[in-house]
Amino acid sequence: MLWVGAVGTVLFVMAFIVDGWSRPGYSPVRHPVSALALGSRGAVQTVNFLQCGCAVAVGATGLLIAGAHPALAAVLAVFGAALVASGVFPMDPMLGYPPGAPDGVPDESSHRHRLHDIAGAAVFLSLPTAMVIAALTLPGTGWRIGSGVAAVALFATSVRFARCWEEESAHLGLVQRGVIVPGWSWLAALFVLHVPA
Predict the structure, then answer these.
(1) Cβ 45 vs Cβ 36: under 8 Å
(2) pLDDT in tens, 125-140
(3) Which domain of life does this protein belong to (predicted)?
(4) Averaged pLDDT of the chain
(5) What's the domain range around 92?
(6) Helix (H, G, I), strand (E, B) or coil at 94
């Protein structure tokens, strides 16, 4: 179960990196990962959200069985469920993607986009929260300090990402990847750490 969580987390990052760099009209620097769920190849990222969310939920169960603090497993289960919801409720076309979409963020948004925003907020709040819990409960000074530092960094970068969204920054996608890549890497390492020797 822990390997399922680790592999699903790594696959999520690999998939959006490869798909983002090869997608016509998509800029990994400007566009958020969620925008990959739009357009003719949108099913790739939708499946990516679903597989990662389910894999994290399985991994969270594995952590609980392995003896991790129940609060850590519970918050990661919320994280997984929020990723699934992000796939079920895609964002609206905007920021010039897919090609032909409004160049900025429209004043009005669909119901599904609002649900996507709620799911995204849960994703970007639950992961650093899990890091805080890990810093307080994991054995080993190195993991506790590392998780604490990672939590502070991820909270700060998530705030910066939210500001970039409000400003419709040209570097929105890059800043978001500054949250996702280190955050998901920490999560994959957490799962692997708890695999029985």
Answers:
(1) yes
(2) 999 999 999 999 998 8
(3) Bacteria
(4) 95
(5) 2-193
(6) strand
Tell if the pTM clears 0.70, that is, is over it: yes
Spatial distance between the Cα atoms of 89 and 46, rounded to a whole number of angstroms = 9
Instruction: Quote the number of domains for the chain.
Output: 1
pLDDT category at 195 given cuts 50, 70, 90 is confident
Burial code (b: 16+ CB inside 10 Å, e: under 16) for 147-186 equals: beebbebbbebbebbeebbeeebeebbbbbbbbbeebbeb
8 A C-beta contact, residue 132 and residue 70? no
Question: Residue 102 belongs to a domain with what CATH number?
Answer: 1.20.1070
Q: Could you tell me if 46 and 85 are in contact, meaning their C-beta atoms sit under 8 angstroms apart?
A: no
Q: What share of the chain is helix, strand, coil (3-state, %, to 5)?
A: 75, 0, 25
